[in-house]
Design goal:
Length: 160
Amino acid sequence: MTDKDLCIETEEIQTDGKDTYYCHRYEPTPYAVLDELFTFYTPEKTDVFVDYGCGMGRLNFYIEKRHSLSSTGVEYSPVYYEKALENKKTYNGNKDKIHFVNCKAEDYLVSKNETVFYFFNPFSPEIFTLLLTVYWIRLKNIQEPSRSFSTIRKTTPFFT
């Protein structure tokens, strides 16, 4: 799969120097890595993905095209959020299954149906820990003891 196949543009790598220790630069997950990942990880038909640090939305478009799944891309940068929205306009798949939100990861309110959380390399371990803490508190407040979810993070042994 390529950007051309999806009618999107996500190849850019951020070089403007605005990345920080806490919020890493935009760098899309290579399609070859996504293809390989999904040979090892098979999502359920009811899964809904959240891509933290989605940038221009590559994973969101990929997961809809390959698995017909819904997703939300959470992006802190207004510039990359707007680029994701532009990609959604030109995307040649089911646009209704793809949503983008412009906010800090820790401010995003996870919905009850979201089950898979993807982290390629969006932010520091401190932000990741804060995000998981906030998520667990919200999950506890929802009181769904049977809820399960998956996280996919670059540090998974697959990526080493």
